[in-house]
Amino acid sequence: MERSDVRSLYLLGAFLACAYALPFLVGAWAGTVRADAAWLGILTTVVVSGVMQGGVYAMFAVGLTLIFGVMRIINAAHGEMVMMGAYLTWVSFFYLGVDPLLSLALTLPVAFLFGVAVQKLLLNAAVGAPELTGLLITFGLGLTMIYTVELIFTTDFRTIPYAPGTIQLTSTIAVGRNRMISFAMAVVISLAVYLFLKLTRLGKAVRATALNAEVAMVCGINVRRIYLITTGLAAALAVAGGALVSIQFGFNPETGVVYTLQAFAIVILGGRGNYVGALVGGLMLGVLENLVSLMIPNGTAMVELAAYGLMIFVLLIRPGGLMGVKEG
Amino acid sequence: MGPGADEIVLEARDLRKAFGGVRAVDGCSFVVPHGKISGLIGPNGSGKTTTFNLLTGLTTPDSGQVIYKKESLAGLKPYEIFRKGITRTFQITRIFRELTVLENMLSVTGLRVPDRVARERAAELIAFVNLGHLRAEYGGRLSYGQQKLLEFARALMTDPDLILLDEPAAGVNRTLLQQLLEHIHRLQEQGKTIVIVEHDMNVIMNHCDRIFVMDYGVKIAEGPPAEIQRDPRVLEAYFGRRRRPDDAGPTPGAPRMA
Amino acid sequence: MTWREHLRNLALVALCGFALALLPSALSVYLRSFMLFTMMYVVLALSWNIISGFTGYTSFGHVAFYGIGAYVCAILVADYGWFWLYTLAVGAGVAALVGIAIGYPVLRLKGPYFAIAMLGAAEGTRVVVAVWDSLTHGGLGISLPSAETSMETYYAMLALMLLTIAVAYAVGHSRFGVRLNAIREDEGAAEALGINATLYKLAAFVLSAVFPAVAGGIQAYKVLYIDPPSVFFVQITIAMALMSMLGGKGTVIGPILGAVLLYTAQELTWVNFPTAHLIAYGLFIVLVARFMPRGLVGFAIDQGWVRKGMVH
To answer: Is residue A328 part of a domain?
Structure first.
């Protein structure tokens, strides 16, 4: 790496350290931090919970990073895909009586095909075009999805009661059983996709196209097909993320909007097109959000700010994120 | 009074620039004489375009200096260097595709003349390169040769003293090339200094007063065309050395930095 | 373009302005509001076009300036008793300062990163406004005292629209505008031709920030109640972008056309199909972006009805 590249990486590291220290500092000043064993127990639980949440965030973000990396398209509808995943799971659970995790066997292929269709009909036109085209197309798509769902399901919040109760990890740390299962599934799926990208020919083709589409074409890779597969995969991952979210949190048609922004923050942090970066970024955001929520007064509003702040500062210090090239 | 003949107008002092592990320019020094046409040649990857980028501020050197008319150009941005009277064209034309030919010409700054005068000058230069009939056409719709002419004309809007041309002959047919070379000589007669990077040896040998040869990021030879043509170092750089059994030197066709 | 053509265009705009000025007394309150919002979107679209159409830096968070203008007006009028017209000037000033503060670091970013950063900036501004309740009343919003008859705001918006059109026209047909376009086309080459890109970008950005701020202020005074989600509404940025794209990004008449057409269509659809209209809107965005990225003016240029280029 060039010198300025290395320098920006150190700067980014320093910033991240400050970002994580900030909740503690503010908490100490505001009195929400206590230095006793009981509070430390709470802290540990919160961190563990953050990691688990981060695992699910990572699921949304990896799809987005693939689309952004391979095609330079900003998918403003990614959160809506997650939301659709939640609703699809809900429908399978309440109307078909299928276990949410098993329903993935149904919803993932459907999502994949949907992604392929979207790419073929809409997004192929946006590849290589100015970023506004992709942004508007996906934004319009997202809007259509929100309001179609709203028409069918109304704006009521839905939840899926699943795996209630908690699991004691250690004497002080207890985690919701549904959260634990979500995280485990997220790990399994992420690992599967990681192996796909790393070991299979198709996966390697996807990574090659993400690095440089023109060169990939010259090497005989059918770039058009890769685009279809990438969007299909991204849609499937988003829907999987939605399924995992649906068993933990309530959702309504508009919750996707926040997920999109969180996914963007993670993609920027981890580096455009970088799969592992998205995983790491997801975990980091999950933990940071939980720390902020715990220690900064007015925590819930501040949590949103955490994602935006993280995103903007990373963009200003090192647009390529942790694992990308300096300029992105 | 400006510099007279045989005076230095541009000096590169021990320029170095590395990209990662690749040393594109590795201690390059030369002095460009005023009012002459100089050529900068060398095999692919010898650092010619990077040198141009260093001279015009598009890239900042890791070390070394560029001195123009006795002033150091260190730390100046490209637009500041432009305003000092140095212009350049690019290896692959960088005209503004969605602007018309006239707009391309008028995008140039630093003229300090009223609008009407600027337009007259633009019209003159457009006529100079025979693009008058296309003045309202988008730059991107021009043929490659026409784009090269446009870029050439655009570079002359401010009446610069030093003109750097990066491969003006590449991809250009013979007739157009002749026109370009005539224009270049006319500019020299007006007292301008010109440096040309080229691969076309006919152009270099027949039209340059002085030639600098680069290889692996350094200047390996300089002199008038006749000397350069015979210089063994130059021949070796381009064609490699004849291999002998106990030779440890580079083989012809050995991979070079891209 | 010759001076005669400029004069002709100016006369046309003045004529429209005159007609619009005579209109409000003849219209119902509803139609007056409709006209006001149409004019507002013309202002927004033209402003967005300066930084995103001409200069090519697609801002996905421009609603931030609109919201800032709305809040400055609301706070000064409701909490400090200012006369509303003066607050507009303050709003413009604040927007300019914020524009410089945000623009200087963020304009260094390229294409998609700039768009995302601006989105983050807009959302961040919304959260800051929502949290800083000592100044902004937070999530409760601000209610403004009701005093106007919907005529004052109409004329204010009309004046703003004419001003914005004049500025956009001056920028678009000047060498300044040509240079902004050059930056969009190839920033490196533009710098090599003496254009101080940083300065030009910042100038364009600030210019594009002040008019939405004033529009936001007028709108706040009109609707008499604002809160963070209503004024920092991401769909306003989308509207700006879509209208410019529909009409023709990078031209002057394009955003005007796009704003008038789209806002009128939106109103008609909303009135006639209350539930489905948002779905229709979403689909419309998709179709326009997919099939008409160059917009109506782009189409007209391709057909030869309109001249190429802005400076002749």
So the answer is: no
Contacts of B19 in chain A (CB under 8 A): 2
Q: What is the CATH number of domain B8-248?
A: 3.40.50.300
For B66: left if phi > 0, alpha if psi spans -120 to 50, otherwise beta; the answer is beta
Cross-sheet strand order for the sheet of B8-19: B22-33, B8-19, B63-68, B71-72
Question: How far, in Å, are A309, B166, C119 from residue B94 at the CA level?
Answer: 37, 12, 31
Mutate to test the interface with C, among B91, B103, B148, B156 (most CBs of C within 10 A): B103
Q: Which residue of A has its CA nearest to C184?
A: A130
User: Phi and psi (nearest 5°) for B212?
Assistant: -110, 135
Contact C290 A143 (CB under 8 A): no
User: Is the residue at A326 inside a domain?
Assistant: no
Instruction: Give per-residue pLDDT as tens, A7-50.
Output: 899 999 999 999 999 988 888 888 877 777 788 888 888 899 89
Q: H or E stretch including A303? A: helix A299-317
Structural domain harbouring A43:
3-317
Each residue's pLDDT tens digit, C123-136? 999 989 988 888 88
pLDDT in tens, A147-180: 999 999 988 999 988 888 888 877 777 888 888 8
Residue whose tokens read 């064609």: B239
Q: What CATH code is carried by the domain that includes residue A274? A: 1.10.3470
Determine, yes or no, domain membership for A52: yes
- For residues C248-262, average pLDDT: 93
List, in sequence order, every residue forming a beta bridge with B18; answer none if it has no partner.
B23
Helix (H, G, I), strand (E, B) or coil at B16: strand
The answer to whether the CB atoms of C191 and B78 lie below 8 A apart is yes
> Touching B: which chains, 3+ CB pairs < 8 A?
A, C
**Which residues does C contribute to its contact with B (CB < 8 Å)?**
175, 178-179, 181-182, 185-186, 188-197, 250, 307-312
At residue B197, φ and ψ (nearest 5 deg) are -95, 130
Taking the C-alpha atoms of residue C130 and residue A298, their distance in angstroms, rounded to an integer, is 11
For B174-190, what is the mean pLDDT?
89
How close B176 comes to chain A (CA, Å)? 31
Asked if B125 contacts B105 with a C-beta cutoff of 8 angstroms, the reply is yes
A6 part of contact set with chain B, CB < 8 Å = no
Q: Is B82 on the interface with C (CB under 8 A)?
A: yes
Chain B interface includes A215 (CB < 8 A): no
Tokens of A306: 């955490």
For chain C, say whether B103 makes contact (Cβ under 8 Å). yes
In this complex, which chains have at least 3 CB pairs below 8 Å with chain C? Answer: A, B
User: What is the predicted pLDDT for the residue at A189?
Assistant: 93
pLDDT band per the 50, 70, 90 thresholds, residue C147: low
Contacts of B20 in chain A (CB under 8 A): 1-2
> Residue B9 and residue A304: Cα distance in Å, rounded?
58
State ipTM: 0.88
CB contact under 8 A, B19 and A2: yes
For residues A22 and B61, give the distance between their C-alpha atoms in angstroms, rounded to a whole number: 39
- Name the domain count of chain A: 1
Structural tokens at position A127: 């590849």
Residue A324 is assigned to a structural domain of this protein = no
Which residue in chain A is spatially nearest to C238 when comparing CA positions? Answer: A136
What element of type H or E holds A155? none
Beta-carbon separation of B19 and A1 below 8 A: no
Token look-up 């710098």 returns: C191
Q: How far is A118 from chain B (nearest CA, A)?
A: 30
How many helices (H) and strands (E) chain C has is answered by: 15, 2
Listing DSSP states for C89-135 in one string gives HHHHHHHHHHHHHHHHHHTTS-HHHHHHHHHHHHHHHHHHHHH-HHH
Average model confidence (pLDDT) for chain C?
A: 91
CB of B256 less than 8 A from some CB of C? no
Of the candidates C192, C250, C312, the beta carbon closest to that of B78 is on: C192
